[in-house]
Amino acid sequence: MSPVADLRSAAAQLRELIAAGVGVALDDYGTAYSSLAMLRDLPLTGLKLDKSFIDTIDSDPTSAILVSGVIAPAKALGLTTTAEGVERQTQLTILQELGCDTAQGYLISRPLPADQLDTVLRAKQARTEPRHTPAPPVPVHAAFTDSP
After folding, report:
1. At 114, is the secondary structure helix, strand, or coil?
2. Does 84 qualify as catalytic in the annotation?
3. Which of 27, 49, 102, 111 is 20 to 30 A from 75 (CA-CA)?
4. Dihedral angle sign, alpha carbons of residues 7, 17, 79, 51
5. CA distance 57 to 30
6. Secondary structure (3-state) at 85
7. Secondary structure class of 128 (helix, strand, coil)
8. How far apart are CA 15 and CA 22, in angstroms?
9. Are 4 and 10 in contact (CB under 8 A)?
10. What is the pLDDT of residue 119?
């Protein structure tokens, strides 16, 4: 059974959001109701890999294999992949090797109020950019290019 009561209507609404420039990601992929059928039936721009797989990606080869097996079809469908719950550099390194696009978790930053995000990004940018060049904006997903 799907958690979406009217899949056709939900898909139409998601298409409208995407057309308006809003990204739509399937959250907690790999658990509960998230399935390959959801990837097939819903218009999406992204897929968020559930933290339960990321927790053990650096200690359990099965988790790494499963995450790799999710990233490949997501890429083939043109979806951006995000790993939830990244807490260790070893996890981030494996995710980079597997081709995951972005990460979120305590390794990158603790949750922040919106008004503090710009300050944190600028501080991170100041640590990673050469001082003699103007610093370009830092994308939120910069976790894959810079260590915190």
Report:
1. helix
2. yes
3. 111
4. negative
5. 14
6. coil
7. helix
8. 9
9. yes
10. 83
Rounded Cα distance between 2 and 81, Å, is 22
Query: Backbone phi, then psi, for 27, in 5-degree steps?
Result: -85, 155
Task: Give the relative orientation of helices 89-98 and 61-76 as an angle to the nearest 10 degrees.
Answer: 40
For the chain, residues with pLDDT lower than 50 are: 1, 132-148
Among residues 16, 84, 97, 129, the one annotated as catalytic is: 84
Q: By the 8 A CB rule, do 57 and 63 touch? A: yes
Q: How many CA atoms lie within 13 A of 43 on its CB side?
A: 14
Alpha carbon distance 94, 123 (integer Å): 26
pTM over 0.85? The answer is no
Give the torsion sign (CA, 62, 67, 70, 75). negative
